[in-house]
Amino acid sequence: xxxxxxxxxxxxxxxxxSYWVHFSYGDLTTCSGIVPMTERGDxxxxxxxxxxxxxxxxxxxxxxxxxxxxxxxxxxxxxxxxVPSGVYLTDSFNLTSHMTLYLARGAVIKATQDTSNWPLIAxxxxxxxxxxxxxxxYMSFIHGDGLEDVVITGENGxxxxxxxxxxxxxxxxxxxxxxxxxxxxxxSRGIVISNVIFRNSPFWNIHPVYCSDVVIRYVxxxxxxxxxxxxxxxxxxxxxVCIEDSFISTGDDLVAVKSGWDEYGIAYGHxxxxxxxxxxxxxxxFAGVAVGSETSGGxxxxxxxxxxxxxxxxxxxxxxxxxxxxxxxxITVSELFMENVRTGIKVAGDTGDHPxxxxxxxxxxxxxxxxxxxxxxxxxxRAGWMHGIENATFTGICLSNITLQGTTGPRPSWNCNAxxxxxxxxxxxxxxxxxxxxxxxxxxxxx
Length: 447
Ligand SMILES: *[C@@H]1O[C@H](CO)[C@@H](O)[C@H](O)[C@H]1NC(C)=O
Ligand SMILES: *[C@@H]1O[C@H](CO)[C@@H](O)[C@H](O)[C@H]1NC(C)=O
Ligand SMILES: *[C@@H]1O[C@H](CO)[C@@H](O)[C@H](O)[C@H]1NC(C)=O
Ligand SMILES: *[C@@H]1O[C@H](CO)[C@@H](O)[C@H](O)[C@H]1NC(C)=O
Ligand SMILES: *[C@@H]1O[C@H](CO)[C@@H](O)[C@H](O)[C@H]1NC(C)=O
Hints:
Mean pLDDT: 93
Number of strands: 26
Low-confidence stretches: 1-24
Strand content: 35-45%
Helix content: 10-25%
CATH architecture of the largest domain: 3 Solenoid
Largest sheet: 20 strands, parallel
Shape: globular
Number of domains: 2
CATH topology of the largest domain: Pectate Lyase C-like
Bound molecules: 2-acetamido-2-deoxy-beta-D-glucopyranose
CATH superfamily of the largest domain: Single-stranded right-handed beta-helix, Pectin lyase-like
């Protein structure tokens, strides 16, 4: 009952928010200009290739043929592949450069639940193995490798991963390899994903890895709160990523910026940088805005602003571990509102597992310059949990204009060690580690 009511409230808030976005402000700040939206002169429909949207007929050959045609005819300005209203069941498939996958209103591209023929691909070099299981990993449902100029858009059609079969394998510990993401781009640039609904991903939803110039906006990402590791968007060893105007409600972090895992990520050495997350609303048992825990290539220049979170585990979570190495710096979160959240702000140097026993325990992460400002929370159980690493104190942490109200009973508390920083206008009063005089300069210059 309560849950039903909460989802009605969420839905209506969201509708109201998008109304506001569209009609009240013509000049909202946006980063989406980094990838211009391309008009395609050449248009084809999946039905021209035998596609049938009855929810039963396999469309794998239709998608592969259509995309083969785009790849080999190479029409000037690229080609739009139209998917009309209907439910198109298919195996996973690869996209190609200079194409738009267009889902009309009422179009659903649905992943097969026959997992036995799901293709396996090599592990990412920055992870050394599959994230969940050693060895290779299942290819994402919709995959792009080494591409440029790719758009996935339309009229809010749906990409449905039918992930429950995979979640059950995870729960029953019968997974042989790492579960597939819903959409993954590897080594690609000039990617736009907009006006699409993503549902029930087997694993992470949208995973741009080794990519640059990526825009993800006006997307809705939904998976049940108890679905394992269904992260919303994970920019990974990628730069110039713009995530805006989206609603995400999943079973794991809504947005988590990553850059590889322990010794493999350190060797690969590819950071995530210039990541913007703006006007995102949602709910998760884990974190709203996260960095980590796989940060071995480094994460810097992240800006998250105008974030609204409800019924969530953690508001902001910066997480790393010994063995990770990597530099995490210049992370700013501002204008964050949260309601019904267990922990407002969490910074942790002991989070996440290791790929194997060859990680170097002396490879400590270096965490510096985290700015958290203009944050308001109600019904927050614990204000802050901020634990750096002994001998690798996290510094330059600036908290300013933060009010976190509890429920009834004691005021939400702060718990800190191995961190240094400053706090201005923070309520309740933060821990002593955040009131350093010599650190207050960095706080002022960021505000
Ligand atoms: C799809 O891409 C993956 C990764 O690049 C590749 O291993 C696989 O062979 C491709 N599959 C098809 C059917 O082209
Ligand atoms: C699709 O959904 C977005 C919200 O994510 C909304 O702003 C947009 O107007 C919708 N577009 C259509 C064609 O319904
Ligand atoms: C910090 O990151 C922000 C947001 O990406 C960027 O605009 C700014 O230039 C960065 N500052 C420094 C000192 O690199
Ligand atoms: C403090 O933060 C709130 C949002 O939580 C914002 O509305 C207000 O303008 C901020 N105040 C200042 C002085 O920036
Ligand atoms: C921290 O440094 C001290 C002095 O170098 C050393 O004795 C101690 O073992 C170190 N602690 C850890 C957890 O590495």
